[in-house]
Automatic annotation (TrEMBL):
<feature type="domain" description="HTH arsR-type">
    <location>
        <begin position="1"/>
        <end position="92"/>
    </location>
</feature>
<dbReference type="GO" id="GO:0003677">
    <property type="term" value="F:DNA binding"/>
</dbReference>
<dbReference type="GO" id="GO:0003700">
    <property type="term" value="F:DNA-binding transcription factor activity"/>
</dbReference>
<keyword id="KW-0805">Transcription regulation</keyword>
<keyword id="KW-0238">DNA-binding</keyword>
<dbReference type="InterPro" id="IPR051081">
    <property type="entry name" value="HTH_MetalResp_TranReg"/>
</dbReference>
<dbReference type="InterPro" id="IPR036390">
    <property type="entry name" value="WH_DNA-bd_sf"/>
</dbReference>
<protein>
    <submittedName>
        <fullName>Transcriptional regulator, ArsR family</fullName>
    </submittedName>
</protein>
<dbReference type="Pfam" id="PF01022">
    <property type="entry name" value="HTH_5"/>
</dbReference>
<dbReference type="InterPro" id="IPR001845">
    <property type="entry name" value="HTH_ArsR_DNA-bd_dom"/>
</dbReference>
<dbReference type="InterPro" id="IPR036388">
    <property type="entry name" value="WH-like_DNA-bd_sf"/>
</dbReference>
<dbReference type="InterPro" id="IPR011991">
    <property type="entry name" value="ArsR-like_HTH"/>
</dbReference>
<keyword id="KW-0804">Transcription</keyword>
Amino acid sequence: MNEKKIFKVFKALGEPSRLKIIKLLSQQSMCVCELSEVLDMSQPRVSQHLRTLKEVDLVYEERQGFWTYYKLDLDEMHKVLKEFHDFLGADLNEIEGYEEIHHRLVNLPPKEEIKNKTK
């Protein structure tokens, strides 16, 4: 997973209603009408949030007769969390796009000099 994917997933999860949907779907699969009822939110609004969660692969849909049920993709959720953990554990100089940040970090003056500059 690249940094852009991590950003998109966390951005999707940063909206409180979507986080509530994720929590509900971690309990059971649900249709839009059930989510709408539980969240006291319009069905179009719930559908909009589900579309965002589907775009980052955290939720998928499953048809059962006339109904479409939404489910949390636990494998994808675990994958995202593992890759985020790996991202945090990686050296800055090993992450594409972080070379300049790594260079500035290793050449950072001592804290005392920085504190004196801000006074």
